[in-house]
Amino acid sequence: MRQRVIDAINHRQTELTPWHIDLTSGFTNMLKKETKCRDVETFLGNHLRHAKYKKNEKLGERLESNIFGVTWQNTDDGGDVRVVKAFPLKDKSLSEYRFPEIKADFAKELCGELENDTSGRFRMFSLAMCYYERAWSLRGIENILMDTCLDEKSTQALFSKILEHHLKLLDIVIDYDYEGVYFGDDWGQQRGLIMGPDLWRKYIGPGVAKMYEKVKSKGKYVIQHSCGDIRAIMSDLVDMGMDVYNTIQPEIYN
Q: What is the tens place of the pLDDT at every residue in 112-146?
């Protein structure tokens, strides 16, 4: 499976098109019940293996806090999607907020699991809510979008701190034996970029390029997820070194 994915990335014809089917926890439990399978990934024949740098703390039945101190609340539909309940920087300045220390032991544990994976899948260290999403989850989406137009200094400072954190994390994990790094960051909406291409290139693109550069310097593949229509910056991402683009909204593309 791993070589099949690598061949596809490198534009070599494969006997089968590699696939990966993600399920919510509810559907995962249903599948286990119906098929009696223990390992859903194997049952589905998935080609990819994620190791997600995510370690949330439960705050109650429906609330949890992530590594950055953002409080999330479960939605009422029973799915896996959560909404932000409390934004740490909504009413505070950046100087009043203390960025979290890298959870190095946890990150190394994840990488060890990738190295020891014997399934033959294409292995990825996964950094979701990566950059723009990390900023709005701290500041609030309306605030961060207004900031990009009205307060360049504080906006650049926030993105710089997020980038500093992520580069330190990548330094810890990048030399382990796995194939790629998966970045998750939703930039698009149904028609074009949320913040537009100019502001993306001003605030987001430079940091993304530095993260890509670090991954590519170690011979690993760059996998980028973004919901929405991001055609306006697709060539930017390719030039930066993106190898794989993932979307769950094929209806917005031709």
A: 999 999 999 999 999 998 999 999 999 999 999 99
d(CA 186, CA 130): 9
The enclosing domain of 123 has a CATH number of: 3.20.20.210
* Rounded CA separation 144/203 (Å): 11
- Give me the sign of the Cα torsion angle 133, 135, 140, 145: negative
- pTM for the complete prediction? 0.92
- Which residues form the domain of 190? 48-252
Cβ partners under 8 Å of residue 37, min gap 6: 31, 43
Residues with Cβ within 8 Å of residue 21, at least 6 apart in sequence:
44, 46
In-domain check, residue 1: no
